[in-house]
Amino acid sequence: MDSKAQPISDSVFSHPGYVHLTVSRVVTALATQAMTIALGWLIYDLTQSAFALGFVGFCQFLPRFFLTLIVGQIADHFDRRIIVLICQALQAPLRSFWRLRCSRAG
Length: 106
Prior knowledge:
Elements: H1 16-47, H2 50-77, H3 80-105
Helix pairs in contact: 1-2
């Protein structure tokens, strides 16, 4: 019986699905942080108010706090690809609206 441990030749990074998942999670996290910082700068630039900046941060936190359990149930019962598609379809016009609104204000 051989007492030497065999090295594991299969790394998680050799699986394309895992690599895509990891890269997409990192890119999404960076984009979310960049958007949060940009929104904070915009609000502070427009209002010069620390209270308004804090209020925006609080409002960004509230949906995650209150909707986590509800969204978890929805994700368990429906196809997640459809959920992501619906969320992206709702976000696109809202982001376009704010992009136009901010470009007219500045």
